[in-house]
Amino acid sequence: MKVIHSxxxxxxLLFATVSFxxxxxxxxxxxxxxxxxxxxxxxxxxxxxAQFHQALKSGDRVTARALLANKxxxxxxxxxEKSADEYAExxxxxxxxxxxxxxxxxxxxxxxxIGNIAxxxxxxxxxxxxxxxxxxxxxxxxMVLLKAAGKWKIVHIHWSH
Length: 161
Prior knowledge:
The protein is an alpha+beta fold. It contains six helices and six strands.
């Protein structure tokens, strides 16, 4: 647990530093390190994220759960889930039902890979109807992934609207 917490803290610090530097110094050297939305699957970490999103959209619980680290931390709607099992047992099905009913357009998506750690930042637009309500909202997603035993696993997600 301490290792994952330490990795998460270092990654968030790197995220803050890199984000500031990219905004302050927009040049080819910096932007070349970022994977943009139209080439999201250009990295293995990006493929993992795309597979996770597809699993949620299609209702594939097994695949979605398999792409999460056991001790994933998920922030959503002011709450927190502290494991993949907790998310799978509580919020995952609601997320799947919601995503199955709406259309989501990725507005911006960037991935940064630093060794065995990757982070992803995206903005999206959701439209459609869910439970009789019109949906027209923008959302943001941040993910942190860790590569272990040759596989990328999602160790942190933060969703906000």
